[in-house]
């Protein structure tokens, strides 16, 4: 390969992120766990009551959602116990959903879709205005009103829909009725409701596999545990592949066809379309599993601060490890949109609001994201692309590439509020150019790999991260307080209980 690396398309990225958001660690489960700890052993609901709640909700599948405006991500959501992802997006974005593209991990139910397509009613109102009222609008202004009405496009992953068609006899009649209602809403809406799956470019999966192996997180584990099972990464990946195929692919092909028929995709049931569709879905699932295992739930590895005094202050407390890992995988996915031919870097910024809110992400909300790339709008050949192996410093890339953190800050869709806890997740150590930017922007916590900390090269150096004060740093490492101290929000393992007993 002559410096060219395979790159994820934007549609691929949005699709993968929607699936990934469906897997956002359930806030309810986290809260319940901590409540159970406080109250002793039992949760607020008795066992019977718990069983009832879970059968009611079984039919509604948790759904991930990516909101995109002008091809930029402006929202990452997932269903909560109380609300579907689509409704959450409406509450959070309101009329700002105009002209947005929505990427769902499941076809949304009729209750969500009717609210989302409701924007189109605005268009009809304008059309119905008496002539004299319309005439004061400039022709271009009128056009703007038309364009501003409603969501632009609703894309969904073509497997089991939000109201599950796989959930067994009792609910299936309702699920079919809902699917019919969805079709009706779809055919009457201005928004384009569709399946938008793009095949991955050649060698994409292999490339992601290789680079995942080399990423900071896997490297760190294999460096510190040289005698550990070298294959832990492949093992972890195999498990993820199985798990995600169960979740995102209908394993029985006939059943999958039936679902496609019911949700109005009968044209995809014929071959070669059907087999192409399945292959495409499998490839994307494989890619997601590969990236997810690059920040693995492995032994006592996690994002920890080296400074133990810092951890004790509530404001500086790290996120639950599973949430931190989830956000880092978002950043890892973003890195595969890089324009740098050698090193892809991704960054994502989240903040924690004051209230827990209705979102499946709890109090956390999305602020912005980015990857390393040449200045927006530049053409492919505008800038040099050489790295530090090139002797002539003038033709190296370093003065032209915008770093992932810089893009995430520049193209953020929300303000960073000084009174709130905000955090940036970066797949590599922030460089000396970025560290003061992150601090200056008021970000309170950095989650990153630290393989490059303290390194200095001719064009890029990583000296300032180690000295940075006033921002909490959580880097990927073995739990420094020893394996016997429980991470606050981690489930208790038998091993840790045993070790605690020793104290
Ligand atoms: Zn819904
Ligand atoms: Zn940088």
From TrEMBL:
Q: What GO cellular component term, any one, is given? A: cytoplasm
Does Metal-binding appear among the keywords?
A: yes
Cofactor(s) the record lists:
Zn(2+)
Where does the CMP/dCMP-type deaminase domain start and stop, copy by copy?
38-145, 322-462
Enzyme class, first EC level, given as a word: hydrolase
Has UniProt tagged this entry with the keyword Ribonucleoprotein?
Answer: no
Which transformation does this protein catalyse, written as a reaction? cytidine + H2O + H(+) = uridine + NH4(+); 2'-deoxycytidine + H2O + H(+) = 2'-deoxyuridine + NH4(+)
Region of interest: Disordered: 31-56
Q: Where is the signal peptide?
A: 1-29
Keywords associated with the record: Hydrolase, Metal-binding, Repeat, Signal, Zinc
Composition bias, Basic and acidic residues: 31-44
- The EC number on file is 3.5.4.5
Which parts form a coiled-coil structure per UniProt?
none
Q: Which GO terms describe its molecular function?
A: cytidine deaminase activity; dCMP deaminase activity; zinc ion binding
Q: Which family does it belong to?
A: Belongs to the cytidine and deoxycytidylate deaminase family.
Q: What role does it play?
A: Catalyzes the deamination of cytidine and deoxycytidine into uridine and deoxyuridine, respectively. May play an important role in testicular development and spermatogenesis.
| Listed name of the protein | Cytidine and dCMP deaminase domain-containing protein 1
* Native source organism of the sequence: Pteropus alecto (Black flying fox)
Ranked from the top, the taxonomy reads: Eukaryota, Metazoa, Chordata, Craniata, Vertebrata
